[in-house]
Amino acid sequence: MKDKIMVFIIGVLVGAVLSTGVFFAYTKISNNNNNNGNVPQMNGQEPPDKPDGDPPEKPSDDNN
Q1: What is the DSSP letter of 44?
Q2: How far from the centroid of its chain's Cα atoms is residue 58's Cα?
Q3: CA-CA distance, 32 to 38, in Å (whole number)?
Q4: Straight-line distance from the first to the last Cα atom of the chain, in angstroms, rounded to the nearest whole number
Q5: Measured over all CA atoms, what is the biggest interatomic distance in the chain, rounded to whole angstroms?
Q6: What is the pTM of this model?
Q7: Alpha helix locations (H) across the chain?
Q8: Which tens digit of pLDDT belongs to each residue from 10-48?
Protein backbone atom coordinates (compact mmCIF):
# COMPACT_ATOMS: atom_id res chain seq x y z
CA MET A 1 0.00 0.00 0.00
CA LYS A 2 2.84 2.37 0.87
CA ASP A 3 4.43 1.75 -2.54
CA LYS A 4 1.22 2.71 -4.34
CA ILE A 5 0.97 5.96 -2.40
CA MET A 6 4.58 6.87 -3.25
CA VAL A 7 3.98 6.16 -6.94
CA PHE A 8 0.86 8.31 -6.83
CA ILE A 9 2.68 11.23 -5.15
CA ILE A 10 5.58 11.03 -7.61
CA GLY A 11 3.11 10.92 -10.51
CA VAL A 12 1.27 13.99 -9.25
CA LEU A 13 4.53 15.92 -8.83
CA VAL A 14 5.81 14.95 -12.29
CA GLY A 15 2.46 15.89 -13.83
CA ALA A 16 2.51 19.27 -12.10
CA VAL A 17 6.03 20.02 -13.31
CA LEU A 18 5.20 18.99 -16.89
CA SER A 19 1.96 20.98 -17.04
CA THR A 20 3.68 24.06 -15.58
CA GLY A 21 6.44 23.84 -18.17
CA VAL A 22 3.95 23.48 -21.02
CA PHE A 23 1.91 26.41 -19.67
CA PHE A 24 4.96 28.70 -19.52
CA ALA A 25 6.06 27.66 -23.02
CA TYR A 26 2.57 28.31 -24.40
CA THR A 27 2.32 31.75 -22.81
CA LYS A 28 5.77 32.72 -24.09
CA ILE A 29 4.93 31.61 -27.62
CA SER A 30 1.50 33.24 -27.43
CA ASN A 31 2.95 36.57 -26.24
CA ASN A 32 5.55 36.57 -29.02
CA ASN A 33 2.86 36.06 -31.68
CA ASN A 34 0.54 38.75 -30.30
CA ASN A 35 3.19 41.47 -30.04
CA ASN A 36 4.17 41.68 -33.70
CA GLY A 37 3.51 45.41 -33.89
CA ASN A 38 -0.13 45.16 -32.86
CA VAL A 39 0.39 47.08 -29.62
CA PRO A 40 -0.69 50.72 -30.01
CA GLN A 41 2.04 53.21 -29.19
CA MET A 42 1.45 56.68 -27.77
CA ASN A 43 4.71 58.09 -29.27
CA GLY A 44 5.15 60.52 -26.40
CA GLN A 45 1.61 61.88 -26.57
CA GLU A 46 -0.59 62.46 -23.54
CA PRO A 47 -3.74 60.35 -23.16
CA PRO A 48 -6.99 62.27 -23.65
CA ASP A 49 -8.55 63.93 -20.61
CA LYS A 50 -11.84 62.84 -19.12
CA PRO A 51 -14.78 64.99 -20.19
CA ASP A 52 -16.00 67.56 -17.67
CA GLY A 53 -19.40 67.31 -16.06
CA ASP A 54 -21.53 64.58 -14.62
CA PRO A 55 -21.91 61.18 -16.28
CA PRO A 56 -25.15 60.62 -18.18
CA GLU A 57 -28.05 59.32 -16.13
CA LYS A 58 -29.34 55.80 -16.53
CA PRO A 59 -32.72 55.50 -18.24
CA SER A 60 -35.52 54.79 -15.82
CA ASP A 61 -37.30 51.46 -15.76
CA ASP A 62 -40.72 53.15 -15.68
CA ASN A 63 -42.75 52.71 -18.85
CA ASN A 64 -45.14 55.63 -18.15
Answers
A1: T
A2: 31
A3: 11
A4: 74
A5: 75
A6: 0.46
A7: 2-34
A8: 999 999 999 999 999 998 887 766 555 555 666 777 777
